[in-house]
Design goal:
Belongs to the EamA transporter family. With 386 residues, the protein is an all-alpha fold. Helix content is 62%, strand content 1%. The C terminus is likely disordered.
Length: 386
């Protein structure tokens, strides 16, 4: 795995581990209004991200067209606010494992959807790795009690997770990870405020207590600011397909941190599922593939900007010109037992394997002749060279 790919994998893994660990913080926000919490979380995260966005943030935002702003609104509404509301609604009639299992299928959907949108077939290794991640996530969480609405909201949560990855691809390049995170947090805060006003009326913003404030601060400063920036930096290096594989670490991190607060246990099933998730991530991200030569160009998003060519091989579209250290095609150096002759073999030479000069021919470029055998010495003598 190349250095840039390794860094992207570490960033995506850190982001998903932070999100998985945030489920512990969610457990203390069970009685706090969901829209209120999302507004406070994303508004505070936006304030923290603005200084990190760079001094050229406003010119880059003004350069966006209407379609890109619509995509940002959909990214915040579907992938952030909508995703969280769907998970909360699903858990009202289903056990938490049910939406978790559906969200664990997001790598499979992204591994198929993103290539189709680009007009290319899915990468086999990424698809197989995504299937392993989905099976591992199911093994870690298991399956719980649910009903029709619980399944429906879980499917909506899956759509939000997929949208969070797919919708960000076209706007990640012009904005960059930090400015994109700040922008979508600002948009999500506005959308959460609108949703809270519709659902709760004038009493939608309740003041949180000390415990709820600490949980919201953790979600804003760590999960959103650090997690979002790391996630988009990882996606920038890996591409959406391979980065989404790491979302399988979310249930693994949740299962590992649950015993710390007494909300769950980590047993053999969780260990087996964690191993499957790790194998799927390693397979799909390319960690299990052998390292290729420096002249090979990998087919991931981070390598499409780089072309590495051998010194003696011209780049695509370039003439095959010798370099400073390359030798032009010329006569081979003569061995110790070879003597130069003034001509090359002509059409009257019956022995095609013997190189001699034609007696009546003009001088030709030097060739080479074997002088070790008696027959060769006889013919050379007839030509006046002996």
């Amino acid at each position: 795995m190349r250095a840039g790919t390794t860094r992207g994998a570490l960033l995506a893994a850190l982001a998903c581990v932070l999100v998985g660990g945030s489920f512990t913080a969610n457990s203390v926000l069970g009685h706090y209004p969901s829209a209120d919490g999302q507004f406070l979380r994303y508004a505070l995260a936006c304030l923290l991200l603005v200084p990190l966005a760079g001094s050229d943030g406003m010119p880059r935002l003004r350069a966006l067209d209407a379609r890109q702003w619509v995509r940002l609104a959909l990214l915040a509404g579907i992938g952030m606010v909508g995703f969280n509301l769907a998970v909360i609604a699903a858990e009202r009639s289903a056990e938490p494992a049910v939406p978790g299992v559906f969200v664990g299928c997001a790598p499979v959907v992204v591994a198929v959807l993103v290539p189709l949108l680009d007009g290319r077939p899915p990468q086999r290794a990424v698809l197989y790795g995504a299937l392993l991640v989905a099976v591992g996530a199911f093994t870690v969480q298991g399956w719980g009690r649910t009903d029709g609405p619980g399944i429906a909201y879980s499917v909506c949560a899956l759509g939000g997770e997929v949208g969070f990855a797919v919708l960000a691809v076209p706007v990640l390049r012009p904005l960059g990870p930090r400015l994109l995170s700040a922008t979508v947090c600002a948009v999500a805060a506005g959308e959460a405020a609108l949703a809270g006003a519709v659902m709760d009326g004038g009493a939608w913003l309740r003041r949180p207590d000390a415990t709820e404030s600490a949980a919201l601060l953790w979600q804003a400063a760590v999960v959103t600011v650090v997690g979002f920036v790391c996630w988009y930096m990882g996606m920038q290096r890996l591409g959406a397909e391979r980065a989404t594989l790491f979302s399988g670490l979310i249930p693994v991190a949740a299962a590992c941190t649950a015993p710390l607060v007494g909300t769950g246990s980590y047993g053999p099933a969780q260990a087996a599922g964690s191993a499957l998730v790790g194998a799927g991530v390693a397979l799909g991200s390319g960690a299990l593939r052998p390292r290729r030569s420096a002249a090979a160009v990998e087919d991931d998003a981070s390598d499409q900007r780089r072309v590495v060519v051998h010194r003696a091989v011209p780049a695509a579209g370039q003439p095959d010109q010798p370099g400073a250290r390359d030798d032009r095609l010329g006569a081979d150096a003569l061995a110790a037992h070879e003597d130069p002759v003034p001509g090359a073999p002509g059409h009257r030479d019956r022995h095609t394997r013997q190189i001699v000069g034609e007696p009546d021919g003009a001088a030709r470029p030097q060739g080479r002749v074997e002088t070790g055998g008696p027959h060769e010495r006889e013919r050379l003598g007839d030509h006046g060279l002996g």
